[in-house]
Amino acid sequence: MSDRPVIPDQMRALVLDGVGFDHLHVREIPTPRPGPRQLLARVDAAGICTSLIKLVAQGPDHSYIYGWDVARYPLILGDEGSITLVEVGEDLQGRYQLGERYVIQPAVDHAPINHRERYRDGAKGVEKLGVGYTLPGHLAEYVLVSEEVLAAGCLLPLPGSDLPYAHAALSEPFSCAISGQDHHMHLIQEDPLKPRSVLKGLKPDGVTVIIGAGAMGRMHVDAALSYRPRVIIASDLIESRLERVRTLFGARAEKLGIALYAVNPAETDLGALIDDLTHYHGADDVIVAVGARRAIETAQAYCGRGAVLNLFGGLKKGEDMVNLDTGIVHYKEINVTGSSGGSPWDIARMLELMATGAVDAGSHIAQIGDLDHSIEFLEMVQAQDIDGKAIVYPHRRTNEKLTVSAWTGGDEKEYLASGS
Q: Is 1 a member of any domain?
């Protein structure tokens, strides 16, 4: 990239101008130019996030839109991406350099600075924004990095220049798993005459159970390996997902001395397996990585004394009331937790794990395409026709979609070199 890249007047972007997929379009729009305290970045790769389905379905009624009139002020979607700076605002000269690579934590804990009049009640009470929601998103050739993103510390530099674009783009969904596991708190009292201490994260040398081995469930397995539990059990009703768990993580788990089980609860009594592995003490950490009421209610029985039950998979509004066995909470003294998205630290932590090879982001990628494929990919996600993550390269023009079992840095270089 030259010192002064040529920035076109127009760019392609995925925009939402109403409610429903009929109002979702990839179109040419003016390329934004940064104000004095803003940055403009080229989007090198962007991920297709499941959460976009809810945004498309709800439009201005979505909790992160706050009444913004999407018909009058269309949104540029995309909360996952990897970017390179191409223009720096006047007041930020010297702090940022052209060609620097970053990722953005899209959950921006900051009140609106720009366009407050577009929000309901002039943005009164709005304290959290979303990139790809009311802030410009990554499913475009360029993204405007606004003051809110910078003020909230949500622009994270890459730990090295050799991290593939697609891998860096997945730091956001991975950060949700990092955040979820970071919410686990175990009270430890080794001596009954001494005070309890707090152990944060999954219990080392413990037993971790992950319910659901879809894309996010597998990310949880990947992240859980870094805590070194003695056993990880991944449970799912779909055999192909379980086979991917075995293929992706079996060798690494064995190298780390972790016993990895991938089981179908319709064929294997999961409770009996946990009893056998723990001598009837129960699991230490149970993560429900699927949005299913039955899974949540069943998972409670797998918890041992002092365990953490993580309700990671969200349920639909109106269907989110579940039966909770308060006797388990009371007598087994378990903690019930959950999390929504991550923080800048979670992104930074995941980038570190990627850079050191502790996590292989490429093994979670299933589809590759052009920005023009983003709507089709999102429809495939909605129909559960993708078992993994879809990545688009906004600046590469192609009619071809690729289905892959993994995506390496070498694959990316060859792919980009062969495109227009």
A: no
Can you tell me the distance from the alpha carbon of 262 to that of 212, in angstroms, rounded to the nearest whole number?
10
DSSP 8-state assignment for residue 108: E
Is the C-alpha dihedral spanning 197, 220, 243, 355 positive or negative? negative
pLDDT higher than 60, residue 53 = yes
Q: Which residue has the higher pLDDT, 160 or 290?
A: 290
Same domain, 289 and 141: no
Please indicate, yes or no, if residue 2 is contained in any of the structural domains: no
pLDDT at 2 over 60: no
Q: Which residues pair with 308 in a beta bridge?
A: 285, 335
Q: Which two tokens stand for residue 296?
A: 């949540």
State pLDDT tens for residues 213-248. Answer: 999 999 999 999 999 999 999 999 999 999 999 999
Cβ–Cβ contacts within 10 Å for residue 313, how many?
19
Residue 124 and residue 191 in one domain: no
Which tokens is 154 given? 């949500």
Beta strand spans in 95-172 (E)? 101-104, 107-108, 129-130, 142-145, 155-157
30 and 122 assigned to the same domain: yes
User: Which pTM value belongs to this model?
Assistant: 0.90
What value, to the nearest 5°, has the Cα angle with vertex 24 and ends 21 and 28?
160
Beta-strand relationship, 303-310 and 365-370: unpaired
Which residues does 40 contact at the CB level (< 8 Å), separation at least 6? 7, 31, 32, 33, 34, 85, 86, 87, 142, 143, 144, 145
